[in-house]
Design brief:
Order of helices and strands: EHEHEHEHEHEHHHEH
CATH class: Alpha Beta
Low-confidence stretches: none
Radius of gyration: 18 Å
Structural class: alpha/beta
Strand order of the largest sheet: 3-2-1-4-5-6-7
Number of helices: 9
Strand content: 5-15%
Number of strands: 7
Helix content: 40-55%
CATH architecture: 3-Layer(aba) Sandwich
Distance between the termini: 47 Å
CATH topology: Rossmann fold
Number of domains: 1
CATH superfamily: NAD(P)-binding Rossmann-like Domain
Shape: globular
Mean pLDDT: 94
Amino acid sequence: MRADGRRFVDRVCLVTGSTGMAAAAALGLAREGGRIFVASRSAEHCAELAERIEAFGGQVAWAACDLSREEDAEAAVRGVVDRFGRVDAVYNVAGISGRRYGDGPLHECTLEGWETVLAANARSVFLVCRAAVRQMLGQLRVDGMRGSILNMSSVLASAPSPVHFGTVAYAASKGAIESLTRASAAAYAVEGIRINAIAPSLVATPMSLRAQESERVQRYLRDKQPLAGGVIDPRDLVGAALFLLSDDARMVTGQVLTVDGGWSISEGAEQHA
């Protein structure tokens, strides 16, 4: 690490998503010297995030795109290289919650819900990872490393909560991301490409507004996520994410880091009231 603690000076970072956890991480990466490329569905949100980064002198570019489309995912990575010359770090945050499309418990989940969520979450991560790895294989740093990738999973992939968060397609999409992460990390470690995942529980993002507005869910979370005492602030994910993307974690690959405020080891209020 540099003496000033800025771990991403001269590093090019692609962040997918432009609000919540993605925005918090992009700001953190930029403050540590990273050149940021944001790829997200919403041009408005991309532009707003870019303005926030530029306000403190950060370098940023962006593209509005649908990363579940092969051509868009490849164009996003190509756009990073066209703008900044390379891609050193990728943080795959973009994704959806599919209740409005029909996701839910297995006996209620619709085929549309299943396919929409798998496409938006798992397929998009696959496409961005594939395009990024293809680019990284053609670049090499003096230390023998080629780049790092961090994928967004969820605690629901391994610690379900069917009463309040019984969405089978969402959980399956995150489980697929974890398997993709491990398999890819094993394949590309020899090439100097690190691939990890982060698995948060309920974080205060636009996607989780339904849960945030439910008093019953809030009571549940106060005990289920005792370190947060409720919903986790997106900024509480930034330290873990930047660690895994940085050279501080240069010996770490194929891992899923759970950042859940205690979710996976706590019972929840309704189970011990």
